[in-house]
Amino acid sequence: MRAIRRLYFYAVAFISLEVVLWGLIGLARTTFSSSTVGGVDQLAQALALILVGVPVFGIHWWAAQRSAHQDEEEHASGVRTVFLYAVLLALLIPVVQNGLAFLDRLLLDAFGLSASRAMLGGSQTLSDNLLAAVMNGILAAYFVYVLRDDWATVRQRGTLGTVRRLYRYIWVVYSLLMAVGGVQQMLRYLLSLPAAALSDFGDYAWFVNGLALILVGVPLWVAAWKTVQDSLVEAEERASLLRLGVLYVLSLSGVVFVLSVAGVVIDALLRMILGEFGTFRALMREIGGPLSMGIPLGGVWAYYGHWLKRDMDAVPDAPRRAGIRRLYYYILSVIGLAATFIGVTMLLSFTIDAVL
Q1: d(CA 79, CA 84)
Q2: Which residues, 6+ apart, have CB-to-CB distance to 332 below 8 Å?
Q3: From the centroid of its chain, how far is CA 87?
Q4: Which of 167, 210, 276, 298 has the smallest C-beta neighbourhood within 10 Å, fewest atoms?
Q5: Cα-Cα-Cα-Cα dihedral of 191, 195, 197, 203, to 10°?
Q6: DSSP string of 66-104?
Q7: Does residue 202 carry a pLDDT above 60?
Q8: Has residue 277 got a pLDDT over 70?
Q9: How many CB atoms lie within 10 A of CB 267?
Q10: pLDDT greater than 60 at residue 195
Q11: What SS3 state is found at 314?
């Protein structure tokens, strides 16, 4: 019963916190907006969210905090830890997204393009993004303070360490996806140029959107990955199965995408040799999109494959080290075998159709 009660209080606190937050953001945007269209409706909606959410969040968060301060088991519970780190993600990711939206519109304006071409927030203004980022940032600062207090108070830190590790790797994957997406968008633009007319420089929006993603994603990834790497001074972090799993997933995802892209490129080259299309421009139209995805993911495969190999080599237990390495090679073998099987099946199907 205590676990169910704990889950209920933290779930309601999380939902009501988001209700209050977006009510406050809506109220601030209505207050500072120069537009009167829909102003009364927006103001009423924001006030309704605040009036409903504040008492609900206040009661449930007060009850959760009181239980945590009175009972060590409550303070060190996994539900509380997951709640705190989930709240930080829910607050800090919108800060990043609003910064990205503003930077993207700024770059589009600098290149002479419409802000509506932005990946997100094309209809927003600087004040919209700034107010949302500030509101989320203030609440994030409060929960960072709560988490630091928990780290200083709780004696049994196993759950705190595990959830913090997961939190850090979520940031690594999130920022890496932004960086890879940015490189893909820029390469997509650059690879589209040979397929365009000589006087046509293509669609700048791909390039600008990609540049915005890189300017936000790369520094964030560097900071997140450095934090993860610096934590390896702790034995628990070095022996973490989560780290090994993340390295496996990132490395193998790169393998799958690179193999897929290689198949598409070879297919296009063979079709060109066989006379289906005869110009370089037509070839680039076929392979430009897949190449723009395969090149950055090939980099992900190479980089995280390197770290996976180093981590496997660093495992002190020889049988366990051999087992981990064996699993990696078997997975690669299965991927290669599946690709070969599909290719042979398609080739036999074509041969049979041609003969009969």
Answers
A1: 9
A2: 252, 255
A3: 16
A4: 276
A5: -50
A6: HHHHH-HHHHT-HHHHHHHHHHHHHHHHHHHHHHHHHHH
A7: no
A8: no
A9: 14
A10: no
A11: coil
If you search the block for the tokens 């390469």, which residue do you land on?
187
pLDDT digits (tens, 9 = 90+) for 29-69: 787 765 544 467 777 888 888 888 889 998 989 988 888 88
Output the six-digit token pair for 272.
């060109």
CB atoms within 10 A of CB 150: 17
Question: Are 29 and 127 within 8 A, CB to CB?
Answer: yes
Torsion, Cα 201 206 207 211, to 10 degrees, reads 170
Cα–Cα distance, 166 to 174 (Å, whole number):
12
Helix axes 318-355, 280-313, angle to 10 degrees: 160
Q: What is the Cα gyration radius of the chain?
A: 26
User: Could you give the 3-state DSSP secondary structure of residue 154?
Assistant: coil
**Tokens coding 147:** 């988490």
- Between residues 113 and 32, which one has the greater pLDDT? 113
Residue of 236, 241, 229, 235 lying closest to 320 (CA atoms): 241
User: What percent of the chain has pLDDT above 90?
Assistant: 26
pLDDT attached to residue 200: 47
Angle of helix 241-273 relative to helix 158-192, nearest 10 degrees, comes to 20
- pLDDT confidence tier of residue 168, bands split at 50, 70 and 90: very high
**Distance in angstroms (rounded) separating the CA atoms of residues 57 and 14:** 8
Q: Is 114 left (phi over 0), alpha (psi -120 to 50) or beta?
A: beta
pLDDT in tens, 283-301: 777 777 888 888 899 899 8
Q: In whole numbers, what is the pLDDT of the chain averaged over residues?
A: 84
User: Residues with Cβ < 8 Å from 302, sequence gap 6 or more?
Assistant: 254
For 171-185, b where at least 16 C-beta lie within 10 A, e where not — what string? Answer: bbebbbebbbbbbbb
